[in-house]
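input
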Amino acid sequence: MLEVAGLIKRFGGFTAVANVSFKVEQGEILGLIGPNGSGKSTIFNMLSGTFPPIAGSIRFQGREIAGMPPHRIIHQGIGRTFQIPRPFRRLSIFENVVLAGFYGSDGTTKAGAFEAAERSLHLVGLTSDRAAPVSGLGAAGLKKLELAKALATGPKLLLADESLGGLDETEMEQAADMLRRIRDERGITIIWVEHIMGVLMRVVDRVMVLDHGEKIAEGLPGEVARDPRVIEVYLGTDAADAQASAAERV
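output
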């Protein structure tokens, strides 16, 4: 579904993404992890059209989309959430989602936008609150609203950017289950950026790890969790050396 090759992005003399390549298969949930400043959000911004890459290819369903403006990428079928939800505070929950539906890939008719909003609110569990102002939503509600807005655009590929941020443990588990349900019930492919690794590893099919703009590991969750390069990034050199020594003794 998505093929990224040799992606590069620089800001002045700083290289945020350095020659990153990866593929995402239809129906897959790919976890994208790495420490702050590793390039995760920059990759999302290039995939969604916020930033054009300096070099590299982004092919979505066989079509080159690198450098396309965001509205055209949405119409291709790529939707995204943002780390910090910024809804229109003067609009109701339903009105916020309808507005997103007008930018969707399935057309921009009033009936289509309303139908997309209803489906999306039902999927994230906000139907009963649809007429309420967004000012009454807590952290979990705002994350659900952000997901509903992205879903209302009719994506084939969803870029979920830190959907667990600000949630308690129970809310994190519910949000993770919701992402898996979105894939299972709607057939939407997902790339999920997250810092809460324990929850992410339970849901995703594969994981890709970035560090200082470079891809350092990719594979099944269990394989990536045992990779010495990943352990060094998250726990330090001593932990990676200890793991290597233990593996040699087995």
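quick obs: The chain is about 40% helix and 25% strand.
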